[in-house]
Amino acid sequence: MENLIEVKNLKKYFSTPRGELHAVDNVSLNIEKGKTIGIVGESGCGKSTLGKTLMRLHNATSGQVLYNGVDIANMPMKEFKKDYRSNIQMIFQDPYSSLDPRMNVLQLIEEPIKVNMKNLSKIEIKEKAQEMMELVGLAKRLENSYPHELDGGRRQRIGIARALSLNPDFIVCDEPVSALDVSIQAQILNLLQNLQAERGLTYMFITHDMSVVKHISDDIAVMYLGQVIEKCPANEIFKHTIHPYSQALLSAIPIPNVHVKKERMILRGELTSPINPKKCCRFVARCPYATEKCHNEEPELRELKTNHSVACHYAEKFM
Amino acid sequence: MAKIHTPAMEKIEKRNAKRKKPVKSTPTTESWKRFKRNPTALLGLFVVCILILVAIFAPLIAPFDYQKQDYASMMQAPSMKHLFGTDQFGRDIFSRVIFGTRYSLVIALFCTIAAFFSGGLLGIIAGYFGGIADTIIMRIMDVFQSIPMIMMAMCIVAVLGNGIPQLVAAVMFASMPTMARSNRAAILRVRGSDYIESSEAIGVGQIRMIIKHMIPNAVGVMIIYFVGFLAVSIMMMSAMSYIGVGLSAPTPEWGLILNDGKAYLTSAPYMMLFPAMMIMITCFAFNLMGDGLRDAFDPRLK
């Protein structure tokens, strides 16, 4: 399959009073058409920033994002808005705050259509919005409701309808279910999967929830402090995880069986600051296997097996 | 399919038509509902409404001409004829206070509008554009703010002279920094919210963003500041008139009436009591209303 999105050495630094914050540092990813890539990592590891940089909500510091071979990260904003905005869309994390409280459901869903398809008449816009509501499973009677009257699941459906109404082929899902109840999480995940099957969508699914990512992803990239440290097919990571950090992440998934005692790998130490990081392995402060070499050299992402890359000096040892 | 009509059905239809339609719950009606539930806010609104009515119908309410001097009845204590007593020229203080409502409310409104369109707009610009514009505007406002409000107003009146436009200008300049600050905060709060980012993601342009998203969401907070500022303006105006840099006699402005009475504080305290009470009641009412509006528009802001 061809790659829809190719991220090449993408960097996003924020300047803070204490120095450069390396939110996304040298990330390279390929996302195949029609597939889902899961981005996993703890809070503050830069996974949302990565998504927002792909969306051009942030401008990249350096590096490229190729969409069907065209670099969208460095083109003028005007051109991006005109030609690519509708192709790349985003579903936001918090459906409670990401919808304008002063607009009703229909207005919210009409908005992207109104803004991007200027040649449509009012009635056509309304029809299209209603079609979208049906597609994401929002009852017609909710048209005039305001977000504050709806539950989280319905609000997230509005968010999905807004993203989908522009017929995108790539959607960045920024923790779309983390703010929802578990029962509703499943509904939304199923909706996202059905939509993907129907419309051949490509997802970048950002989450910190390993069980969600297992359910929905084809490939997984684990991020730590702005860098991708392990990248492989989804089933591979649950069977043969290599990087010590990924191992620790996986050992944190609870097993719903009281008789199985699982050995948990508990990380000690503090998260290293992402501001002006030193040239060393980012994980060194918390890694139980860290050696002198890890303190002095930054490991590169190396392909150890087909489709399985790890950034660790001693990756072979953990295989 | 034709509709069937029976007498019973018509009866029901009639009854249904009579019933009020359920009120749709929009953010605005929600705010109004919260406001209605708040007794102190309603009291504030009620008093403000009465004051407005008093200002409009002042000639009908006031028993005497506020300028007419009556040397037969000077410095009289409150009585049935002169509810608030008379001053050293025999003018009816009740009538003067009633007419004073006009001056206080109207000038305060002008002051607040002027402050809003100068300071408020600067604050909105600073908040929206951020960066250098923000720094420049807010540092200038800081300089303004470092001069005491009354001092500032006095300087302006000293340069431009007495009069209503000068007074408005003085209050405007003195309250610009606070107005800028609060409006900037209101815009910043909206600007940093997720729905602005999500609208950006679907390609909403700058102008639509301001008109459709930022203003509707910030306007509630701005109204709160606006109402609060009416109270501040009335206070400032009265204070300036009292120290003699505001309006000039014989205007029946509350601060001026206070000024008239200050010489007789020990012998005729009622001359100061009633205008002072009016100032207090008015400011109190506006503040109650402002607090009520704050709770109504944004229950989380408390």
Automatic annotation (TrEMBL), chain A:
Cite the entry's keywords alphabetically: ATP-binding, Nucleotide-binding, Transport
| An individual GO BP term | peptide transport
* Source organism superkingdom: Bacteria
Which InterPro entries does the record associate with it? AAA+_ATPase, ABC_transp_ATP-bind, ABC_transporter-like_ATP-bd, Oligopep_ABC_C, P-loop_NTPase
Q: Where are the transmembrane segments?
A: none
Does the keyword field hold Transport?
yes
Pfam families, per the entry: ABC_tran, oligo_HPY
Please give the Gene Ontology molecular function terms for this protein: ATP binding; ATP hydrolysis activity
Domain named ABC transporter is located at 5-250
User: Keyword ATP-binding on this protein?
Assistant: yes
Q: Which family does it belong to?
A: Belongs to the ABC transporter superfamily.
Q: Which NCBIfam families match?
A: oligo_HPY
UniProt-recorded name of the protein = Oligopeptide/dipeptide ABC transporter, ATP-binding protein, C-terminal domain-containing protein
Organism annotation: Anaerobium acetethylicum
Q: From which lineage does this chain's organism come?
A: Bacteria, Bacillati, Bacillota, Clostridia, Lachnospirales
TrEMBL record, chain B:
Instruction: Report the superkingdom from the record.
Output: Bacteria
Q: Which family does it belong to?
A: Belongs to the binding-protein-dependent transport system permease family.
- Key words, A-Z: Cell membrane, Membrane, Transmembrane, Transmembrane helix, Transport
Q: Where in the numbering of this chain does the ABC transmembrane type-1 domain appear? A: 101-290
Residue stretches spanning the membrane: 41-64, 105-129, 149-174, 218-243, 263-286
Protein name listed in UniProt: Peptide/nickel transport system permease protein
One Pfam annotation, family name? OppC_N
Query: Quick one: where's region Disordered?
Result: 1-31
PANTHER family, per this entry? D,D-DIPEPTIDE TRANSPORT SYSTEM PERMEASE PROTEIN DDPC-RELATED, OLIGOPEPTIDE TRANSPORT SYSTEM PERMEASE PROTEIN APPC
One GO BP annotation is: transmembrane transport
The membrane-topology field of this record reads: Multi-pass membrane protein
